[in-house]
Write a structure and sequence with these properties.
The protein is α+β, with helices and mostly antiparallel strands. It has 7 helices and 29 strands. Helix 2 runs antiparallel to helix 3. The longest helix is centred in the N-terminal third of the chain and has 17 residues.
Length: about 425
């Protein structure tokens, strides 16, 4: 009798008491995993798993799990519940002592906007609600209700203008001399000196506009992509006012970015697609299996960090518990058969709890992610085999006296190349 024949015979055998023992073991595993604290990683989780396996062994069902279809189901559930990326998460540092991958951060908190230098030192710019770096990092565009201002990283005010409504989603052109922002339902552009303000479009969608990188346009024009409320994305020369292209969108977007001069990455709640502004067909590059897309960030090389959130999606988890995942999508990869989708996507981190929007470092080597329930920032690498860096006690560092009830401070920008 060969090994294959032996395996088939063993699978057909019923271990005495198999059904009862499997049910008891399932309950042990489910109870151990359902109450796990996402902050307790590594040894404690492995310890709980060891207890569950010990209970299985004492019930005499380890062989059944290895050989029976019911055992295969348990193994698959355990592989999903104990995510390798979750188990490898490190203990956090108590304090931001440096910026992984270098550069400087803009951090928003209830106290206002902060600048964090590469060595971890920080200064409060002021009580602003949003901020964006200029391309070189010389200035910061900040918002306070209906006011848009340009300040230096040390807080010095350069200019300030009044908008018709609350300012949101301000973003600098790569050539430095234009700032686009949303206000009063429309899209506005002002030059880098705070002059020549004008309304570029009315009835735009509530999503940050995206400037075409200078490298993608031979004429070095100030070209902007934005979405309207009628389901179209427009590409416009903001200086001449000319609409260069328009394309329909399959869904209402939550994020836009450029892949090259002819393609725009559009992220919606249920898909990531590439829209061609030259009239070619759109291409769907990613759909989540479950849950919905909460946020996304694109790197300079076309990789996209997609944040997925879902409720009650894991067997044995408490009702209503949120499970979040950070998925890396290679948006520039060609379309192909769904069977090769895994070559375009990879889960970088996953676990119970609510995550904040991901932000790529300027060089694309790290992705910052806020873990709200843990008061922690995580700096994940898109490369295989590179451990994440966790920094804890974030709220206390940017919310003096704010207490545990304060929202987790967020990274609004990461500068510079």
């Amino acid at each position: 009798m060969n090994e294959e024949r032996l395996g088939e015979e063993l699978r057909r055998q019923v271990v005495p008491g198999e059904s009862d023992a499997a049910e008891r073991s399932w309950e042990v595993v489910r109870a151990a995993m359902a109450e796990r604290d996402p902050a307790l990683v590594g040894a404690r989780r492995r310890s709980r798993l060891a207890v569950a396996l010990g209970a299985m062994a004492s019930a005499g069902v380890v062989l059944a799990i290895a050989l029976t279809p019911a055992g295969a189901e348990v193994r698959e559930w355990m592989a999903d519940a104990v995510d390798p990326a979750e188990v490898r998460a490190p203990a956090d540092r108590r304090g931001l002592t440096g910026v992984p991958s270098g550069g400087r951060l803009l951090v928003g908190s209830e106290a206002g906007q902060w600048v964090v230098d590469e060595d971890g030192s920080r200064r409060l710019l002021g009580e602003y609600s949003g901020a964006a770096w200029s391309p070189s990092g010389m200035f910061v565009a900040v918002a306070r209700e209906r006011e848009l201002s340009a300040v230096e990283p040390d807080g010095g005010l350069r200019w300030s203008i009044s908008a018709p409504g609350p300012v949101a989603d301000q973003t600098w052109a790569p050539g430095c001399c234009r700032i686009a922002y949303r206000s009063d339902g429309g899209l506005f552009v002002v030059d880098g000196a705070g002059a020549s303000e004008r309304r570029l479009a009315a009835r735009v969608a509530p999503v940050r506009p995206a400037w075409m990188p200078v490298a993608y346009d031979d004429a070095s024009r100030n070209v902007l992509a934005y979405a309207d409320r009628d389901g179209l994305v427009h590409v416009r020369d903001v200086d001449s006012g000319e609409v260069l292209a328009s394309a329909p969108l399959a869904r209402r977007p939550i994020a836009l970015s450029w892949l090259d001069r002819d393609r725009i990455l559009v992220v919606a709640r249920d898909l990531v697609e590439v829209v061609r502004v030259d009239g070619g067909p759109a291409q769907t590059v990613y759909r989540p299996d479950r849950g919905r897309i909460e946020a996304a960030s694109a790197s300079v090389d076309g990789n996209v960090a997609v944040l997925i959130g879902s409720r009650g999606s894991m067997s044995g988890s408490a009702p209503g518990r949120v499970r979040s995942s950070l998925v890396l999508v290679k948006a520039g990869a060609p379309a192909g058969d769904p069977s090769v989708r895994t070559s375009r996507t990879r889960t970088l981190f996953s676990g119970l709890g609510r995550y904040d929007s991901p932000v790529f470092s300027p060089d694309g080597q790290r992705i910052q992610l806020g873990l709200r329930d843990l008061d922690q920032w995580l700096f994940v690498s898109p490369k295989r085999g590179v451990d994440p860096i966790a920094v804890g006690d974030i709220t206390r560092q940017f919310e003096p006296g704010g207490g545990a009830a304060a929202p987790l401070p967020r990274v609004d920008g990461w500068c510079c190349d």
